[in-house]
Amino acid sequence: MTGDHYFTAEPTSPDQRRDIEFTVAGHGLTLVATGGVFSAGRLDPGTAVLLRKGELPVAGTTGHLLDLGCGYGPIACALATVAPAATVHAVDVNARARELAAENAARIGAADRVRVAAPDDVPDDVVFAQIWSNPPIRIGKAELHAMLTRWLPRLAPDGVGWLVVARHLGGDSLHRWLVDQGFRVDRHASQKGYRVLRVTR
User: What is the pTM of this model?
Assistant: First the structure.
């Protein structure tokens, strides 16, 4: 066993690669994942609910989209697939996750439209039309709140954030906390124990 978590900056878990297949908006995607990243064995159920229940961008969507805590890149690749005119930023603290996200963007022919970066490497002047995240609840409440208060204010004035959180991991309390921070939050959907939250400024 190693001490790696999906939010470990430099994982040391064995690099045992496997293909992850899923469908989003009628598009079949096959991505590669490996140990030391979030949900390396399958598409995470929460991510699946988010991609199924959130309102994906339309083909004509332009501007900047953010996959916050991208892991190996399933959300970023989904966004790049359904919104080919947009620029997708895939952000993660985990170096192995970033490497995989870049590789997967290239796999689907979107390497020129998916910008993979560590959090501090995203230019400060970029504002996002949409922010998508299956946030890393297990980093702890203080760190989670710090992450969200760092990124959600970078939504464009008419932008929208889409978050998925398991109810038993505090989905409802996170909803209340976001409202307390001044965001408008709607519980857009509930499925399989997950809350899909729509967040606007």
Answer: 0.91
